[in-house]
Amino acid sequence: MTLVVAQVNGKNISAVSDTGISHNNGDIFPAHKCKPKICILSENIAVGFSGSPELADTAISKCPTVENYHDVVNYFLEFHIQKENGVDFLIMSQLGNPSITKISGGRKTKGPSNISWIGEKIAFDRFQLYRNSENVPTSVSHFERPLMATANRLEIAGNNQTFKLASTLRYVILDRDVHSVFGHPVVISNVDGGFTYRPYAISLDTKPITAEQQASFPDNIVAELDELREFSFSCYVTKPNSHKQGIAYHYMRGNFTYVYYGDRGKPLNVFKLVKDQNADGFIRIMENEGCTDWTGYLLSMRPPSTEDGYPMDRWIEADKETLIRSGMNLKNNKKSK
Questions:
Q1: How far apart are CA 257 and CA 249, in angstroms?
Q2: What is the C-alpha separation between 53 and 76, in angstroms, rounded?
Q3: CA 296 to CA 235: how far, in whole Å?
């Protein structure tokens, strides 16, 4: 199982999924057998799936049209029924009035809610719990305060739900009681006028701690705080007009990257693990694979240094409005260009 959640707010549609694939017996597959659960068929239509990844690949790869929403919905509904409900779909469209159609249980449903989902119910229940509560313990570390950055202010403005959905999904992925949702968050939105995969960066701050409190902590807690401040994770994506589409999950301190890519309009089925390369290095390697035009950024809570592998003039002070977080001093937060 998995979790795919999509939401309509006015003209905006946002959707998120994990990348984890698990066997029917609950065994978790390694990263190279996982994949994003959302495919952008065209700038106007995207599809998420839950269930058999093999069936989903077949359905998406053989979809005869990517522009007529009615025909796309009927095609996936017929495929779903023919395969005895072996794979469910969420079909998202910005044609006319933005809408989401859920295909599950042998039928299609549309509305009345502006949010739809497919996958495991316990995962969606936890998603809703995290989304609607500010006081639920949601982190692996008691001291953790996650930060998420985006370069597009429209994605955090007004009613746009893109990164509210993404940050909530991250908590579900971390939840040890939800075994079927894991891997990395996949994020799409039509905020730029058509559906695109969205880049973002995540770093970890700590909850407010006084110097006196920290002085009283045992060594293992001090080490935990240092480890949190070192964490930096970025999602890079290819631009929408690229011949090959890709999503890359880069860990800045470890210099390794998980990359999922494929032909435009098709599932991102090809996996590559790039080791011992910073973000510039993995991009060069992927360009040799024919996967070009990457965009993304890094976020660092500790002051950056030349040891990170980037010229210091590429780092800029993070703008408060681009960090999805609550009331913290941003003086030491840096973001790379």
A1: 5
A2: 14
A3: 7
**Residues in CB range of 91: below 8 A, 6 or more apart:** 45, 46, 47, 69, 72, 73, 76, 100, 101, 103
In this structure, which topology does domain 3-141+152-189 adopt according to CATH? Glutamine Phosphoribosylpyrophosphate, subunit 1, domain 1 (3.60.20)
Q: What is the DSSP code (8-state) at residue 304?
A: P
**Which pLDDT tens digit goes with each residue over 235-247?**
999 999 899 999 9
C-alpha closest to that of 271 among 258, 255, 290: 258
- This prediction has a pTM of 0.88
Which tokens is 27 given?
């065994």
DSSP per-residue letters across 260-281? EEEETTS---EEEEEES--HHH
Residue with tokens 């023919």: 82
For residue 141, pLDDT beyond 80: no
> What tokens appear for 90 in the block?
């969420």
Contact 163, 324 (CB under 8 A): yes
**Burial grade of 43 (CB within 10 A; 0-12, 13-18, 19 or more):** middle
Q: d(Cα 233, Cα 298) in Å, to the nearest integer?
A: 7
Question: 236 Cβ partners below 8 Å, 6+ apart?
Answer: 199, 246, 247, 248, 249, 250, 257, 279, 283, 294, 295, 296
**DSSP letter (8 states) at residue 156:** G
Q: Where are the domains of the chain?
A: 3-141+152-189, 197-336
Q: Name which of 142-151, 178-187, 293-302 the model is least confident about.
A: 142-151
Taking only the tens place, the pLDDT of each residue in 145-173 is: 777 777 666 666 656 788 889 888 988 98
Could you tell me which residues are beta bridge partners of residue 91?
47, 101
**Secondary structure (3-state) at 160:** coil
